[in-house]
Specification:
310 residues, two-stranded antiparallel sheet, alpha+beta, extended, single chain, 9-stranded mixed β-sheet
Length: 310
């Protein structure tokens, strides 16, 4: 499978001393030993080998005023950050697989329903029964036995759709992006001079254009940590102030578990905290309420009939 790379651009910035350096879009380096602030990004020391996506990096969301006035009692709140490919493997690829799975099950039900009508088979199989037979070992043979004599074309179509469902199920249980990509590419078809992998890649890109409100994209955390990262705003965790080293000299200590890597610049830090607040303050309303509202709207749109005058 070809390697697909996201290219991250950098822009120049000037330190207070006039020296030029690089800032990775949303982040900037922090002076060695500077106090912790909201928006500081840290990387766990065991992150290169850790399998827990929630313990790779984080961004401090405790308010600056609470830190400055020591209202946090040494406890800092942060939201986890993890690489873009971890996000794809956790949320995007399973969703793509789930959507294709539902589509295939719907097509299987439509095909079986048509064959049952043509063969005058009553009662027909329910959607739930079809899903079970499409996902268990030997289910295809049971479906063929239920239908009896079918054309080779219909039999092949049924087998192909059931195989796609099986691939989608394997994708949904995998946690490795490369593995998920390879499996999904086998059920995509080439189109307009694009390979199956390129077609799949186009769908992934389309889904990344409209990220949900509970995630925030960060281009890079430092010069060593590039390639795109996701801050997950729905999960707020805590760490102790003394567990984060603010020195670039990699000081060791029994309580130190992470090193500060950079700091989110304005307006990105403000946007991140705003989105986080929106996640927890947004209150949904029941469908019944919206249906009643729409009904009243519709009933009041037409003007009242004019009163007849004598």
């Amino acid at each position: 499978m070809p390697e697909y790379v996201i290219h991250i651009d950098t822009v120049a910035f000037a330190h207070n001393d006039g020296a030029m350096g690089e800032v990775f879009m949303e982040c900037t380096p922090v002076a060695d030993g500077a106090s912790i602030r909201q928006g500081d990004i840290f990387i766990f020391r065991d992150s290169p080998t850790g399998d827990d996506i929630w313990k790779k990096a984080g961004v401090i969301v405790t308010a600056d005023c609470d830190i400055a006035n020591d209202k946090h009692a040494g406890i800092l709140s942060y939201v986890p950050i993890f690489p873009l490919r971890d996000y794809l493997a956790w949320r995007v690829m399973p969703k793509i697989a789930d959507d294709r799975r539902k589509r295939n099950l719907r097509q299987i039900s439509e095909l079986i329903g048509r064959l049952e009508r043509d063969l005058d088979i009553r009662p027909g199989l329910s959607g739930a029964a079809i899903e079970v037979l499409a996902t268990v070992a030997g289910g295809l043979k049971d479906l063929q036995s239920h239908l009896g004599s079918v054309t080779q074309k219909d039999s092949d179509a049924l087998a192909a759709m059931i195989e796609e469902v099986s691939v989608c199920d394997r994708v949904r249980t995998s946690s490795a992006y490369a593995e998920q990509f390879a499996m999904l590419a086998t059920i995509y078809t080439s189109a307009k001079k694009k390979s199956a992998g390129e077609v799949l890649l186009s769908e992934i890109r389309a889904r990344l254009k409209n990220l949900p409100g509970d995630v925030f994209f960060i281009s890079a955390l430092s010069q060593e940590h590039t390639g795109g990262y996701i801050a997950y705003l729905r999960l707020i965790r805590e760490t102790h102030l003394h567990q984060i080293s603010t020195s670039y000299y990699y000081k060791d200590g029994r309580s130190v578990v992470a090193n500060r890597a950079s700091r989110l610049r304005a307006p990105y830090v403000y946007r991140l905290t705003q989105q986080m607040a929106d996640v927890f303050t947004s209150i949904g309303l029941p469908e019944e309420y919206e249906a009643a509202r729409d009904c009243i709207f519709d009933s009041r749109l037409a003007p009242e009939p004019a009163l007849e005058t004598t």
